């Protein structure tokens, strides 16, 4: 993040009109490529991507809001609280915010449920208005998908799985999305700084989580998941949570600022600290983790496949002390970030092991402008080879897909990067993280 994060009159920072325009353009282009007449999504991240409407946490599980977007028109927001107020606050949605058709998730047990039928009739009406009534409808983000498919079929409307359409539309980030992710990273840095200042014997994991969340909201985050904080014994196996365990002298303290959301864009940044002076064994394990991290990053360039990245990691689950990749799976993976915590692409040894072919650009491969990272858990023997040097044991280098002739930029500090990540965790609980930006 080179500049400040708030709008000012003396510098060009985030251009929100351009952000909305380019996101919608990408989505409509993907809708056309996938042969859809329109798309209906209840997914809160996709609702924001298409309209910039923020679905608050309590309403997400209710599926109270949705967006309808035709291939040849502008998006419509259904269930946008009080429509007149939503349009006043979001003038770019003028005349396209509708009152909710009801809470189908609470009522529907079959395709003839009256609330579900109201949704189907309303969407069919919009499809007719845009002349796409006889074309496939992509449906995304609802637990009632099976019932919707049956109900739309009664209207002679073919329903297809819409999630891949939005996944691929969102995979390549626009310039303004990347800047928002840089800001998300910067907010995470403040949370880590506050946590580091508080680490001392007797402070509990839950105390550190509270300190980190407070720092995030002070910086304007609109939402965050509970931070992961594991110390000492709790670092291995990794628990994706925190407890009331007090920190003790010599403990490694592993923290993940995961799902911290700034204007919708998520962070997932891991760091490991030591309460006191780290032992040589801990330092060696840390370096082992970091070497593997940079090995994976060295393969991040335009045109690469997920398998090329996976080749840089140990090829047997026994390295992690397990017999099958299914057991290792939660610890050795990679994923993108964006408006969700797990955007495409994904890097999964378990998938490769069962015969999933390598993914290419446009699938899950590396394309120009992708924002991505890798994560894994490792550390029982040296990886070997060299990794790029860098300053400071808590700073990481970054790889870039699709910028420049060779698809790679020089390493830059984390605070200047967009938020994707690579996590590696050593067998005794050491973790390092790096981000990859576009």
Task: Report a brief summary of the structure.
Helices cover 33% and strands 17% of the residues. It has 438 residues and is of the alpha/beta class. The chain folds into two domains: 16-170, Creatine Amidinohydrolase, Chain A, domain 1 (3-Layer(aba) Sandwich), CATH 3.40.350; 175-437, Creatine Amidinohydrolase.
What does this molecule look like?
With 438 residues, the chain is α/β, with parallel strands linked by helices. It has two domains: 16-170, Creatinase/prolidase N-terminal domain (Creatine Amidinohydrolase, Chain A, domain 1), CATH 3.40.350; 175-437, Creatine Amidinohydrolase (Alpha-Beta Complex), CATH 3.90.230.10. It is 33% helix and 17% strand. The chain contains 14 helices and 16 strands. It has helices at 16-33, 44-51, 57-60, 83-89, 104-107, 114-129, 145-153, 163-171, 175-198, 205-218, 280-297, 306-310, 325-328, 349-353; strands spanning 38-41, 66-70, 76-78, 97-98, 137-140, 159-161, 228-231, 252-262, 265-274, 333-336, 343-347, 372-377, 399-400, 422-425, 431-434, 436-437. The protein has a six-stranded mixed beta sheet, with helices on both faces. Strands 11-10-12-14-15 form a five-stranded mixed beta sheet. Strands 7-8-9 form a three-stranded antiparallel beta sheet, with helices on one face. A hairpin with a 2-residue loop joins β8 and β9. α1 packs across α8, α6 packs across α7 (145-153) and α9 packs across α10 (205-218). It is globular, with a radius of gyration of 23 Å. The relative contact order is 0.11. Residues 361-438 have low confidence and may be disordered.
